[in-house]
Amino acid sequence: MSSTTINKGGRAGAVALALAGWVVKFVVVVLVIATFNFILVHAAPGDPAQVIAGQSGASDEKLLEQLRAEYGLDKPYPVQLANYLGRVLTLDLGYSYRQQRTVSSLIMERLPATLLLTATAFILALISGIFLGTLAGIRAGKWSDTLLTIVSLLLYATPVFWLGLMLVLLFAVELNWLPAFGYATIGVQLSAFERMLDIGKHMILPVTSLAAIYLAIYTRLMRSSVLDVTHQDFIKTAKAKGLKQGAIIMHHILRNAMLPIVTVAGMQAGALVGGAVVIETVFAWPGLGRLIYDALLQRDYPVLLGVFLVMSVIVIALNLLTDAIYRMIDPRVSVRAAS
């Protein structure tokens, strides 16, 4: 057997071992998060049985006991937790007390709207922040740098919900340019292209509100990183070789200055999903945020646990994606990990 075949077999085994380790870590992290979610949700005040009984207009003790027995709420917490974790391992998220539907169907109905909102806001904030931060860093000390610094600080200091309400008052109420609330116009027959434009118009205000604070963070961070990289020796060497300013920015400054942005963006992506709860409530956006808000008011524990679990999985996946992108941008990370 040749050494090349042995090396290929060794690499394949190492990859398989790494994947197996990744799957084990993923399952353990998801179970730990599910356990914490269960404890926190059940520590909140309120009895789901009383909420369900209130819907039927009766709340006598016999009915409450029947409801608790029907939904397993009369069992000790450790037993409820064990049953819940067992369902998580089989991808069964339970049944909604209030909606009388499976939690997975509710989540799948709302998840596309949340992903559309958060992904658009994230991409907008990331691309704009990198561009504006690079511009501010290259033109440090000039009026454009000062203007971008002031605007980014204002956006960072502005509460998301307040900015959303002000945008609604200006562009929807006063100017009547954009729709104030909702995902799409209701009761109107539209072609596929017209519906896409209609959803796009409804997205402008919530996406702008959600992206604003992250745009400010990325702009400030990118400016600082560009200033740091600009003074490195390899940039001076590139200038001494006679490379054009554009080539130095694209091939040397941006590649190195983006490393902190990728790290922070990976962490912020999870916060972005959580921040969508406020924006979806303000703009009546039919996503997971509104589902959480309604489930919280109704003490619908299975829905809360299901949405929290899905959000946790999304955050873990985004962090793994960030790690992969980081290795692509900076090969030294892969070398250090392998050594």
Describe the structure.
The protein is mostly helical and 339 residues long. Helix content is 80%, strand content 0%. Helix 10 (245-282) runs antiparallel to helix 12 (301-329) and helix 12 (301-329) packs across helix 13 (331-338). The chain starts with a helix and ends with a helix. The model has no long low-confidence stretch (mean pLDDT 81). It holds the Pfam family BPD_transp_1_N. This is ABC transporter permease. It is found in: Cell membrane.
Largest sheet: none
Order of helices and strands: HHHHHHHHHHHHH
Classify the beta-strand content into a percent band: under 5%
C-alpha geometry: globular
Spans of at least 5 consecutive residues with low confidence: none
Blueprint (SSEs and pairs):
Layout: H1 3-43, H2 48-55, H3 61-70, H4 77-89, H5 103-138, H6 143-157, H7 160-174, H8 192-230, H9 233-240, H10 245-282, H11 288-297, H12 301-329, H13 331-338
Helix pairs in contact: 1-4, 1-12, 2-3, 5-6, 5-8, 5-10, 5-12, 6-8, 7-8, 8-10, 9-10, 10-11, 10-12, 11-12, 12-13
Family: Belongs to the binding-protein-dependent transport system permease family.
Protein name: ABC transporter permease
Transmembrane segments: 12-40, 113-135, 147-173, 199-217, 257-283, 303-326
